[in-house]
């Protein structure tokens, strides 16, 4: 029998003009100011390892005792975990369609969740789910995102995302909506070009869903398995809101692997104009030609000229996005500097899963350029601690007797001040 591993809640308290303090596992309200006009909610991000992918990549699970790999063994454990943590929002990846229909959705519904699902395109039968407690939110919109685009040769992979707009159920009824996004980006360590484009597509959808009448954005939570490690160019782009990718090898984007021998460097721009997404990661508004003609009336030369102009504007190797996103986790244990891991099997033990959120302004004070109110702010109250690779090998790695995915669930508690 393998032992269990303890994960504890780290309560985080942001005092004005003071650095983030991590307090022990004491009740948060005894340390932080209690706020009357607030909406607190918790979020879990969890790649539950689809049975189909487990069987396709069985070489990754040779360290496991056979019985712990059966879905009939794994699912009750996963459900127990979800039930135990009781998060208000679940962002699940690798949700296999048949299991979703017959077991996952019915079980979660009986726990009080409303479930939305987006299956991958192509032949792999898994996808992303976002589930939320009826008691906490009502559903404003469901926005699936397919990263496969038959008209863009670069985008030949079947990954997807899902973006929901949720209305908090508050006593006063007055609250902005909250935008929750979930994704599982392409795995292939060598194809950073595709990963970055998939991310840009997700960000464009989030911008569309989260934008408010006054031009600002509502609070955003972006979860998922990004198949990229902390500090990689893709990760830095999410956190910093900008990336100069000039001269960057496509195999270096995600940081999963060290070598970039013989690899192409990213082309400028990374994706073609017909994707309809700008270098700022927003959907491009259809440009109406100034001449009083419809597109079909334009001669080929006129069309070519328009295209040249549009292309010329974009020949810069800078990507940007408009959210200021923080990561719930800091990816290293502060005392030892040892990396946290979110996934662990016989080939790797790394962080690839994240919960990003639009931080309240005081959370990001001191960072240049963050004075503008770019997105509604969330305060991070607490997170469930992660583990080291060494911790996980003491229980035979993942999945094991008690932890039934090759990923750990990530959990955060947020506060929205109203
Ligand atoms: O790393 V993952 O596991 O985020 O948990 O995402 C992908 C990989 C997932 C969906 O494609 O399947 C796993 N080697 C190792 N793992 C792979 C491979 C591979 N060649 N292909 C897919 N996955």
UniProtKB/TrEMBL annotation:
Secretion signal span: none
InterPro entries for the chain: ANGEL2_N (IPR045816), CCR4/nocturin_mRNA_transcr (IPR050410), Endo/exonu/phosph_ase_sf (IPR036691), Endo/exonuclease/phosphatase (IPR005135)
Domain of life: Eukaryota
SUPFAM superfamilies recorded: DNase I-like
Gene Ontology molecular function terms on file: 3'-5'-RNA exonuclease activity; mRNA 3'-UTR binding
Residue ranges of every copy of the Endonuclease/exonuclease/phosphatase domain listed in the record: 44-407
An annotated GO BP: 3'-UTR-mediated mRNA stabilization
Short name of one Pfam family: Exo_endo_phos
Chain ranges of the Protein angel homolog 2 N-terminal domain: 2-33
Protein's recorded name: Protein angel homolog 2 isoform X4
């Amino acid at each position: 029998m393998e032992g269990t591993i303890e994960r504890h809640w780290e309560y985080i308290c942001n005092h004005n003009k003071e650095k983030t303090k991590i307090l022990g596992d004491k009740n948060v309200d005894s340390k932080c100011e209690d706020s009357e006009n607030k909406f607190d909610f918790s979020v879990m991000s969890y790649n539950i390892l689809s049975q189909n992918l487990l069987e396709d990549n069985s070489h990754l699970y040779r360290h496991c005792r056979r019985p712990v790999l059966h879905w009939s063994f794994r699912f009750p454990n996963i459900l127990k975990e979800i039930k135990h943590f009781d998060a208000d929002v679940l962002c699940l990846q690798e949700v296999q369609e048949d299991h979703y229909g017959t077991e996952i959705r019915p079980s979660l519904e009986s726990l009080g969740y409303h479930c939305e699902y987006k299956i991958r395109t192509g032949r792999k039968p898994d996808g992303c789910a976002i589930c939320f407690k009826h008691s906490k939110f009502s559903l404003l919109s469901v926005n699936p995102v397919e990263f496969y685009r038959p008209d863009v040769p670069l985008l030949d992979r079947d990954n997807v995302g899902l973006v929901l707009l949720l209305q908090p159920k508050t006593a006063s009824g007055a609250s902005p909506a909250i935008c929750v996004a979930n994704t599982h980006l392409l795995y292939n360590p060598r194809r950073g070009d595709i990963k970055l484009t998939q991310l840009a597509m997700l960000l464009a959808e989030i911008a569309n869903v989260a934008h408010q009448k006054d031009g600002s954005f509502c609070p955003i939570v972006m979860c998922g398995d990004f198949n990229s490690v902390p500090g990689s160019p893709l990760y830095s782009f999410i956190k910093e809101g900008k990336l100069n990718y000039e001269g960057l090898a496509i195999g270096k984007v995600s940081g999963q692997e060290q070598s970039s021998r013989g690899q192409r460097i990213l082309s400028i721009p990374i994706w073609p104009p017909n994707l309809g997404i700008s270098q700022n990661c927003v959907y491009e508004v259809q440009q109406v030609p100034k001449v009083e003609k419809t597109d079909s009336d334009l001669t080929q030369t006129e069309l070519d000229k328009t295209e040249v102009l549009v292309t010329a504007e974009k020949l810069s190797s800078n990507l940007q996005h408009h959210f200021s996103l923080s990561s719930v986790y800091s990816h290293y244990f502060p005392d030892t500097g040892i990396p946290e891991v979110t996934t662990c099997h016989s080939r790797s033990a790394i962080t690839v899963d994240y919960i990003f959120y639009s931080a309240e302004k005081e959370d990001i004070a001191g960072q240049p350029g963050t004075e503008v109110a770019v997105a509604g702010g969330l305060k991070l109250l607490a997170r469930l601690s992660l583990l080291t690779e060494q911790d996980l090998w003491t229980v035979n790695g993942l999945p094991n007797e008690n932890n039934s995915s090759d990923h750990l669930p990530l959990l955060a508690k947020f506060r929205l001040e109203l």
